[in-house]
Amino acid sequence: MKTKILITGGNGNIAIALANEFKKNNKYEIYLPTRQELDVTNLQQIKEYIDNLKPDILINNAGAISLQSIKKNDINTHKNIIDVNLTAVFACSGAVLENKPDAKIINIGSSAGTKPRGNWSSYCATKAAVIMATKCWADEGIDTICLSPGRTLTKMRKSMYPNEDPKTLMTPEDFAKAVVKIIKNGYEKGINIDININNVKELMNA
To answer: Of 5, 132, 185, 199, which shows the fewest CB atoms inside 10 Å?
Structure first.
């Protein structure tokens, strides 16, 4: 029986790269739902989808960002980022573990979770929370890890920094190769690993 992997945020470059990398091993069965198929802000849809699928591995990859100062006091924008980046991680992970307590939970964090950046407060705060949640869940005995990409060549990044030199960015494909290698080689439960253009080659070839 193949290992079922559910990757949230199915339209994203990282999600697609992860799916393609995992597909190279025929022991995996990959599920890459789009937002229409699995809206991670819809708690009922999460429960129904996961109760039906019962994945063995969950990769919490869905993400949202909006660069905005807290001075604007646009709480709805911040709330949406929190719902996608943090609440959904709890909702999806809880639903998976309810079905399979021994499931593996892989959280996609961000280097922004450990590095403060002006106008990124809601994004940085949610990613910092995901890193800490991963550590707490490991303390409960859950098989979990947080993998935090640095600056990566994605649609989301390009929309924020259209003039950025792509040569200075990590590719989603290299990030995915590093993720698969880390999972294959084993890891300390609860650890957060920063993966960036400077160390990705070493990690993917370890």
So the answer is: 185
Which CATH number characterizes residue 12's domain?
Answer: 3.40.50.720
Distance (Å, rounded) from C-alpha 4 to C-alpha 180? 15
Can you give the residue range of the structural domain that contains 174? 3-204
Question: How much is the CA Rg of the chain, to the nearest whole Å?
Answer: 16
Instruction: Check: CB of residue 15 under 8 Å from CB of residue 32.
Output: yes
Say how far apart CA 167 and CA 165 lie, in whole Å. Answer: 5
Q: Which of 158, 204, 152, 149 is nearest to 182 (CA)?
A: 204
Could you read off the pLDDT of 118-127 as tens digits, one per residue?
Answer: 999 999 999 9
* Residue 147 contacts residue 109 (beta carbons within 8 Å): yes
Number of domains the chain is built from: 1
How many C-beta atoms surround the C-beta of residue 88 within 10 A?
Answer: 25
pLDDT, tens digit (0-9, with 9 covering 90-100), for 30-52 = 999 999 999 999 999 999 999 99
